């Protein structure tokens, strides 16, 4: 097939200092020639709120440049080039009018259906005209297709791309396709989708995007674990009691109830976002930073996860969820879930990993909470104050901090809980943390698949959750009611307690600010 794995282009701009990628380790080499980025579903919410702003941010930072890149929007909507430009203009922030206009002039629009060749023939013709223009190096073309579309149309769209829009065999370069989650609804549907796409593209051409893998603190996990000596002997069952990976939203489905009800919180958040974080927390050290070496270790840890037990799962549905007219009155779809994963290997045997996610809760945050075992021989009688915890706050207020017991200032030998704190807003005031989508799109241009989901990894993930999901879908496992604005069903806190989690009484972490200094 044409368009196999390509490599990166330093000519696209400076290399991000926050990236884990090292050009030599990843064997990336220089590329040149026309880069065509096609956003399919260009008139939709995902494209205008995430995809185009990410491209604009890459343009502002010089990673994509007007001399070599062309951006094409494709959708069913009937609009002009200027119509698409105005449609997305309000979502492109942080630039002068002149710079914004330069970016918008890179964008062209093609209208057509997703299952008919006529529109894709026109799209290919438009792309080819730009590739052969006098400003571009002849015979070299790179085509990136971003599917900002529902998964139901992936097979037909990919057939059209394969039939009409591949990089010509007479050109050097590549064709790559980014597909958004959800990748199926269970193991069988995911395997069917993988097989359909696999007939059309090599694995090196497919980039299954999970935007959590583009978050700064998630990308920091490998560095934290494997570049810091003091973590190496601690990161195991001898020292760690339990791990909590938490995602909370303080709002409900907000008009998306009908869509959400098809999936539920496990398919929407836990089986993908939180499970990817789990992999990076629990995996073994890879041989190198090669994308395949990293993804090999993620697959190994997923294959080591034992079957989920019903008595280690709590499901919830907030009161008022079914008031949405698009949600069936008899819906059992969970808006909250707490699921315990157990890893059957030497490092983690006996350590519960609690993956918890919910909507309409009391707070909004995503974090990893690694709780260590009690210190033996409690001579200070401070055990009741809480345990050591290493907390990685993914969002908002990105930070990592270690909760520990210290002497309380004063004349008495009294102890209290405090923290060693690295808050990104304070430590890196002059650095803009990249958005996940811009980082992942840049990785795709460079041909770096480290932060994308491989087919066997996707299969292993669905093997873990499919039996539980089928029990929920059939009504054999019921969701418990909970009030909006709370922590979720009380049974979830009871489950965490049963898994050994000890809350810290009287301690609340507050992000530091310059005002304090």
Automatic annotation (TrEMBL):
Any one GO MF annotation of this record: NADP binding
InterPro entries: G6P_DH (IPR001282), G6P_DH_AS (IPR019796), G6P_DH_C (IPR022675), G6P_DH_NAD-bd (IPR022674), NAD(P)-bd_dom_sf (IPR036291)
The keyword Oxidoreductase appears for this protein: yes
Reactions accelerated catalytically: D-glucose 6-phosphate + NADP(+) = 6-phospho-D-glucono-1,5-lactone + NADPH + H(+)
Highest taxon of the lineage: Eukaryota
UniProt-listed PROSITE patterns: G6P_DEHYDROGENASE (PS00069)
Principal EC category: oxidoreductase
Annotated pathway: Carbohydrate degradation; pentose phosphate pathway; D-ribulose 5-phosphate from D-glucose 6-phosphate (oxidative stage): step 1/3
EC numbers: 1.1.1.49
Extent of the signal sequence: none
Residue span(s) of domain Glucose-6-phosphate dehydrogenase NAD-binding: 38-220
Alphabetical keyword list: Carbohydrate metabolism, Glucose metabolism, NADP, Oxidoreductase
Assigned GO CC terms: cytosol
Location of the Glucose-6-phosphate dehydrogenase C-terminal domain: 222-500
KW Mitochondrion (keyword) present: no
GO BP terms in the entry: glucose metabolic process; pentose-phosphate shunt, oxidative branch
Function: Catalyzes the rate-limiting step of the oxidative pentose-phosphate pathway, which represents a route for the dissimilation of carbohydrates besides glycolysis.
Similarity field: Belongs to the glucose-6-phosphate dehydrogenase family.
Protein name per its UniProtKB record: Glucose-6-phosphate 1-dehydrogenase
């Amino acid at each position: 097939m044409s368009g196999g794995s390509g490599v990166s282009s330093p000519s696209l701009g400076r290399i991000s200092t926050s990236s884990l990628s090292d050009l030599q380790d990843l064997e990336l080499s220089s590329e040149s020639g026309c880069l065509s980025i096609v956003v399919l579903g260009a008139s939709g919410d995902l494209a205008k709120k995430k995809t185009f702003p990410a491209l604009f941010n890459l343009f502002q930072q010089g990673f994509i440049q007007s001399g070599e890149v062309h951006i094409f929007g494709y959708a069913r909507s009937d609009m002009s080039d200027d119509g698409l430009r105005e449609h997305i203009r309000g979502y492109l922030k942080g630039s002068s009018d002149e710079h914004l206009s330069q970016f918008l002039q890179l964008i062209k629009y093609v209208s057509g259906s997703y299952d008919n060749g006529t529109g894709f023939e026109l799209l290919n013709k438009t792309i080819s005209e730009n590739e052969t223009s006098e400003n571009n190096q002849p015979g070299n073309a790179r085509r990136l297709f971003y599917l900002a579309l529902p998964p139901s149309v992936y097979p037909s769209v990919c057939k059209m791309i394969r039939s009409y829009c591949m990089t010509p065999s007479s050109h050097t370069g590549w064709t790559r396709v980014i597909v958004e989650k959800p990748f199926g609804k269970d193991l069988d549907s995911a395997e069917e989708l993988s097989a359909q796409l696999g007939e059309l593209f090599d694995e090196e051409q497919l980039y299954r995007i999970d935007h959590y893998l583009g978050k700064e603190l998630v990308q920091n996990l490998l560095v934290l674990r494997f570049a810091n000596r003091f973590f190496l002997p601690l990161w195991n069952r001898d020292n760690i009691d339990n791990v909590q990976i938490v995602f909370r939203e303080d709002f409900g489905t907000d008009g998306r109830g009908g869509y959400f009800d098809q999936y539920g919180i496990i398919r929407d958040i836990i089986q993908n976002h939180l499970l990817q974080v789990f992999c990076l927390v629990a995996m073994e050290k890879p041989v190198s930073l090669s994308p395949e070496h990293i993804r090999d270790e993620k697959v190994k840890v997923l294959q080591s996860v034992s079957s989920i037990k019903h008595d280690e799962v709590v499901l919830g549905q907030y009161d008022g969820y079914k008031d949405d007219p698009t949600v069936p009155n008899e819906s059992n779809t969970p808006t909250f879930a707490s699921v315990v994963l157990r890893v059957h290997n030497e490092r983690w045997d006996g350590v519960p990993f609690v993956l918890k996610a919910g909507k309409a809760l009391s707070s909004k945050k995503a974090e990893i909470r690694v709780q260590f075992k009690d210190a033996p021989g409690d001579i200070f009688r401070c055990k009741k104050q809480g345990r050591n915890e290493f907390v990685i706050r993914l969002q908002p207020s990105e930070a990592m901090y270690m909760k520990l017991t210290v002497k309380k200032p004063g004349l008495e030998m009294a102890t209290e809980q405090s923290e060693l704190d690295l808050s990104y807003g304070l430590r890196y005031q002059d650095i803009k943390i990249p958005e996940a989508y811009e980082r992942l799109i840049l990785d795709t241009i460079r041909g770096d698949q480290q932060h994308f989901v491989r087919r066997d990894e996707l299969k292993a993930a669905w093997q873990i959750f499919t039996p539980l999901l089928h029990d929920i879908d059939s009504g054999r496992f019921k969701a418990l009611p909970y009030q909006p604005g709370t922590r979720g069903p009380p049974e979830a806190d009871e489950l965490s307690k049963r898994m050994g989690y000890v809350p810290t009484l009287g301690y609340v972490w507050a992000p530091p600010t310059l005002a304090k200094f």
